[in-house]
Amino acid sequence: MDDLEARLARLEDERAIVRTLHAYGQSIDYGDEETWVDCFTEDGVFDVRGRQPHQPTRLISGREELRRFIAGHTRAPELWHKHLLVEPLISLDGDTATCVSYLVVLMQHENLPVVRVFGRYRDRLVKEADGRWRFRERIAEIESMRPDLPPFVDGRQQQQG
To answer: CATH fold of 2-160, please?
Structure first.
Protein backbone atom coordinates (compact mmCIF):
# COMPACT_ATOMS: atom_id res chain seq x y z
CA MET A 1 0.00 0.00 0.00
CA ASP A 2 2.88 2.38 0.71
CA ASP A 3 4.15 1.92 -2.83
CA LEU A 4 0.73 2.71 -4.25
CA GLU A 5 0.45 5.88 -2.13
CA ALA A 6 3.94 6.99 -3.20
CA ARG A 7 3.10 6.41 -6.87
CA LEU A 8 -0.18 8.31 -6.50
CA ALA A 9 1.59 11.23 -4.79
CA ARG A 10 4.14 11.31 -7.62
CA LEU A 11 1.38 11.40 -10.24
CA GLU A 12 -0.42 14.17 -8.35
CA ASP A 13 2.81 16.20 -8.17
CA GLU A 14 3.48 15.71 -11.88
CA ARG A 15 -0.09 16.78 -12.69
CA ALA A 16 0.24 19.86 -10.48
CA ILE A 17 3.48 20.79 -12.26
CA VAL A 18 1.77 20.44 -15.65
CA ARG A 19 -0.97 22.72 -14.33
CA THR A 20 1.67 25.38 -13.52
CA LEU A 21 3.16 25.00 -17.01
CA HIS A 22 -0.26 25.47 -18.59
CA ALA A 23 -1.27 28.36 -16.30
CA TYR A 24 1.86 30.21 -17.44
CA GLY A 25 0.84 30.08 -21.12
CA GLN A 26 -2.88 30.73 -20.62
CA SER A 27 -2.26 33.71 -18.35
CA ILE A 28 0.40 35.39 -20.50
CA ASP A 29 -1.79 35.15 -23.61
CA TYR A 30 -4.89 36.65 -22.02
CA GLY A 31 -3.36 39.20 -19.64
CA ASP A 32 -4.04 37.49 -16.31
CA GLU A 33 -1.01 39.14 -14.75
CA GLU A 34 -1.50 37.94 -11.17
CA THR A 35 -1.86 34.30 -12.21
CA TRP A 36 1.28 34.58 -14.34
CA VAL A 37 3.30 36.13 -11.50
CA ASP A 38 1.94 33.50 -9.09
CA CYS A 39 3.53 30.80 -11.26
CA PHE A 40 6.88 31.93 -9.76
CA THR A 41 8.28 31.81 -6.24
CA GLU A 42 8.85 35.14 -4.45
CA ASP A 43 12.48 35.06 -5.59
CA GLY A 44 11.69 33.39 -8.93
CA VAL A 45 13.80 34.03 -12.01
CA PHE A 46 12.74 34.26 -15.64
CA ASP A 47 15.84 34.06 -17.82
CA VAL A 48 15.38 34.59 -21.58
CA ARG A 49 18.38 33.61 -23.67
CA GLY A 50 18.44 34.43 -27.37
CA ARG A 51 21.14 32.94 -29.56
CA GLN A 52 20.93 35.53 -32.37
CA PRO A 53 21.42 39.34 -32.11
CA HIS A 54 17.75 40.04 -32.99
CA GLN A 55 16.50 37.70 -30.25
CA PRO A 56 15.72 38.94 -26.74
CA THR A 57 18.01 38.33 -23.79
CA ARG A 58 16.92 39.37 -20.33
CA LEU A 59 17.06 38.27 -16.72
CA ILE A 60 14.05 39.04 -14.54
CA SER A 61 14.32 38.31 -10.81
CA GLY A 62 11.69 38.50 -8.09
CA ARG A 63 7.99 39.18 -8.20
CA GLU A 64 8.20 42.96 -8.61
CA GLU A 65 10.36 42.66 -11.74
CA LEU A 66 8.09 39.87 -12.97
CA ARG A 67 5.06 42.16 -12.50
CA ARG A 68 6.71 44.93 -14.52
CA PHE A 69 7.62 42.48 -17.28
CA ILE A 70 4.13 40.99 -17.63
CA ALA A 71 2.45 44.42 -17.51
CA GLY A 72 4.29 45.31 -20.72
CA HIS A 73 3.60 42.03 -22.51
CA THR A 74 0.94 42.03 -25.22
CA ARG A 75 -2.26 40.05 -24.79
CA ALA A 76 -5.58 39.41 -26.44
CA PRO A 77 -7.38 41.19 -27.96
CA GLU A 78 -4.70 43.77 -28.84
CA LEU A 79 -2.42 41.01 -30.18
CA TRP A 80 -3.46 37.38 -30.49
CA HIS A 81 -0.76 34.86 -29.58
CA LYS A 82 -0.47 31.43 -28.01
CA HIS A 83 2.44 30.26 -25.86
CA LEU A 84 2.53 26.51 -26.41
CA LEU A 85 4.47 24.05 -24.31
CA VAL A 86 5.23 20.72 -25.95
CA GLU A 87 6.59 17.41 -24.65
CA PRO A 88 7.41 18.25 -21.01
CA LEU A 89 9.88 15.87 -19.37
CA ILE A 90 9.46 16.18 -15.60
CA SER A 91 11.92 14.81 -13.04
CA LEU A 92 10.82 14.86 -9.40
CA ASP A 93 13.04 14.84 -6.32
CA GLY A 94 10.89 15.35 -3.25
CA ASP A 95 9.63 18.93 -3.20
CA THR A 96 11.84 20.02 -6.11
CA ALA A 97 11.56 19.21 -9.79
CA THR A 98 13.13 19.94 -13.12
CA CYS A 99 11.32 20.06 -16.42
CA VAL A 100 12.56 20.42 -19.97
CA SER A 101 10.03 21.16 -22.70
CA TYR A 102 9.76 22.71 -26.13
CA LEU A 103 8.25 26.15 -26.54
CA VAL A 104 6.43 27.50 -29.56
CA VAL A 105 4.66 30.85 -29.80
CA LEU A 106 2.05 31.29 -32.49
CA MET A 107 0.66 34.70 -33.29
CA GLN A 108 -1.68 36.38 -35.70
CA HIS A 109 -0.01 38.70 -38.18
CA GLU A 110 -1.81 40.35 -41.07
CA ASN A 111 -4.78 38.07 -40.39
CA LEU A 112 -2.67 34.92 -40.74
CA PRO A 113 -1.33 32.52 -38.10
CA VAL A 114 2.47 32.44 -37.99
CA VAL A 115 5.14 30.81 -35.85
CA ARG A 116 6.78 33.66 -33.95
CA VAL A 117 9.42 31.76 -32.02
CA PHE A 118 10.49 28.32 -30.95
CA GLY A 119 13.00 26.89 -28.52
CA ARG A 120 12.91 25.16 -25.18
CA TYR A 121 12.23 25.83 -21.54
CA ARG A 122 14.49 24.53 -18.79
CA ASP A 123 12.66 24.83 -15.49
CA ARG A 124 13.42 24.34 -11.82
CA LEU A 125 10.27 24.16 -9.71
CA VAL A 126 9.58 23.84 -5.99
CA LYS A 127 6.54 22.73 -4.07
CA GLU A 128 5.79 25.53 -1.63
CA ALA A 129 4.12 25.46 1.77
CA ASP A 130 0.68 26.05 0.21
CA GLY A 131 1.11 22.86 -1.86
CA ARG A 132 1.54 24.74 -5.16
CA TRP A 133 4.38 24.04 -7.55
CA ARG A 134 6.07 27.24 -8.76
CA PHE A 135 9.03 28.15 -10.91
CA ARG A 136 12.15 28.98 -8.98
CA GLU A 137 13.85 29.41 -12.35
CA ARG A 138 12.47 29.34 -15.87
CA ILE A 139 15.04 29.57 -18.64
CA ALA A 140 13.62 30.23 -22.10
CA GLU A 141 16.22 29.31 -24.71
CA ILE A 142 15.20 31.04 -27.93
CA GLU A 143 16.44 28.92 -30.82
CA SER A 144 14.67 30.68 -33.69
CA MET A 145 12.61 33.87 -33.88
CA ARG A 146 11.16 35.90 -36.73
CA PRO A 147 12.60 39.41 -36.59
CA ASP A 148 9.96 40.97 -38.87
CA LEU A 149 6.94 40.74 -36.52
CA PRO A 150 5.58 43.32 -34.07
CA PRO A 151 7.06 42.99 -30.57
CA PHE A 152 5.09 41.15 -27.94
CA VAL A 153 7.60 41.54 -25.13
CA ASP A 154 7.38 45.21 -24.11
CA GLY A 155 4.80 45.57 -26.87
CA ARG A 156 2.13 47.16 -24.68
CA GLN A 157 4.24 50.19 -23.79
CA GLN A 158 4.94 50.84 -27.48
CA GLN A 159 1.26 50.46 -28.43
CA GLN A 160 0.02 52.67 -25.58
CA GLY A 161 2.81 55.26 -25.73
So the answer is: Nuclear Transport Factor 2; Chain: A, (3.10.450)
Entry pTM? 0.91
Q: Where are the domains of the chain?
A: 2-160
Q: 3-class secondary structure for 48-64? A: EEECCCCCCCEEEEHHH
Query: Which SS3 state, helix, strand or coil, does residue 36 take?
Result: helix
Question: Tens of pLDDT along the chain (161 residues)?
Answer: 789 999 999 999 999 999 999 999 999 999 999 999 999 999 999 999 988 877 778 999 999 999 999 999 999 999 999 999 999 999 999 999 999 999 999 999 999 999 999 999 999 999 999 999 999 999 999 999 998 888 878 777 544 44
